[in-house]
Design goal:
Length: 396
């Protein structure tokens, strides 16, 4: 299969050349392609407008054609371009991907290359301050205690480092970014930079420097997630509520399961629908079958809708409905969120854990009864850091 690449990107040409599905990868000037010479034509929107692309399609009716779309701030324009591509049998590759990922996407379009499960779960908040970080940390701690598998949690919320309410003793994404963008950070080094928040769970807090947010590039974010996948059995990512940057984009692209966190407010539901329609569907080929709802700070009463009602309205299943805990802010102020004990909260966390264990086929290591009292993780976390080591004793 011969690929014609119409893009000023030698790295992409090299990456496509590594794929044994393609016999040849040739670059050409815009008007240098002769009819019937190309099996696959890959075009950058930086070189060719949509009307020129459609004209090229009329010349090469039998060839597969892929349009590489750069980032657009206007989602209506993005949807217009995608609609034109669909009308003329032209596939497209979304923005904010690494060169390697673009090459994989092109190969998937051309030869149907399958992608295996990544065991990466990305959490998205419909609104800021909805409790996404806390719920993911608690979910990771409980899941690790139940299964015994190694779990890594990455804070890739560009607007909030996610270190409040806990005694955080690790590095931050902005501190290690140079080694990520340069692809120097090894998986074992990543683990050492993270904070061990329970015997089976490590956490890397996110970005503290808001000014750096839009300087983060897909390559560095992808390298971080790849290193985490090599170090842990399950990776949980906190992508926050704002998805218009490389950290969030890579979190969504690399995941095989999205947890969408909402509360009972009308604003949360409406904002989720905007995120879905304006970002996830047009940019990330969002698939509903890979998404589940995770409700948080839920009230029980006749004046508010419950999780089942909200789930039906939004057309997605929910795995858990975490209740509002009145003592939450006291635990937060004392940096003891991981020690928060509430029977209703615990019960709902167990539902989410069982769902993820079923989804990934994770084993049950520890009986649920041993987690019904105050977790041993809480007492372990109160130990001095020098005592928190592999094989160290756990306070009882």
């Amino acid at each position: 299969m011969k690929v014609w690449l119409l893009a000023n990107d030698p790295r992409l040409a090299e990456e496509l050349g590594k794929n044994n599905q393609f016999d040849a990868v040739l670059t050409a000037e815009r008007h240098a392609i002769e009819p019937d010479e190309a099996d696959v034509i890959v075009v950058s929107d930086l070189l060719m407008e949509t009307h020129e692309l459609i004209e090229l399609r009329s010349i090469h009716e039998q060839a597969k054609m892929v349009y590489m779309i750069s980032n657009r701030t206007d989602y209506h324009e993005l949807k217009r371009v995608q609609s034109l591509c669909a009308a003329h049998r032209i596939d497209f590759v979304a923005p904010r991907l690494t060169v390697e990922q673009v090459a994989l996407e092109i190969a998937a379009v051309c030869v149907g290359k399958a992608q295996g499960a990544s065991r990466v779960i990305t959490g998205i908040g419909a609104l800021p301050q909805i409790g996404l970080t806390t719920s993911l940390l608690m979910l990771g701690v409980h899941l690790g205690a139940l299964t015994g598998v190694r779990i890594g949690i990455l804070g890739l919320n560009g607007w909030n480092p996610g270190d409040s309410g806990i005694l955080y003793e690790g590095k931050y994404v902005d501190e290690i970014w140079g080694t990520l963008q340069g692809k120097h950070l090894r998986p074992d080094e990543l683990v050492r930079q993270m904070c061990r928040i329970s015997p089976h769970v490590h956490y890397l807090a996110g970005n503290r420097d808001i000014k750096k947010l839009y300087y983060y590039q897909p390559d560095g974010a992808s390298w971080l997630i790849r290193a985490a996948r090599q170090s842990f059995d399950i990776v949980l990512i906190d992508a926050g509520a704002y998805l218009d940057h490389a950290l969030a984009a890579q979190s969504i692209y690399e995941s095989d399961l999205l947890l969408i966190e909402l509360n009972q407010s009308r604003q949360a539901g409406e904002q989720w629908l905007r995120l879905r329609d304006q970002i996830l569907r047009p940019v990330f080929h969002y698939a509903e079958e890979k998404s589940m709802l995770l409700f948080n700070k839920m009230y029980d009463g006749p004046d508010v809708e419950n999780a089942k009602q909200l789930s039906r309205q939004l057309g997605l299943p929910h795995i858990s409905s975490l209740p509002y805990v009145p003592a939450f802010y006291r635990y937060d102020a004392d940096c003891k969120l991981l020690e928060m004990a509430d029977d209703g909260y615990h019960t709902e966390l167990m539902k989410a854990c069982r769902a993820l264990m079923q989804y990934y086929g994770l084993p049950l290591k520890q009986p649920v009864k041993s987690l019904e009292s105050k977790s041993e993780t809480a007492s372990w976390f109160r130990l001095p850091r020098w005592l928190r080591m592999e094989g160290g004793s756990i306070a009882k």
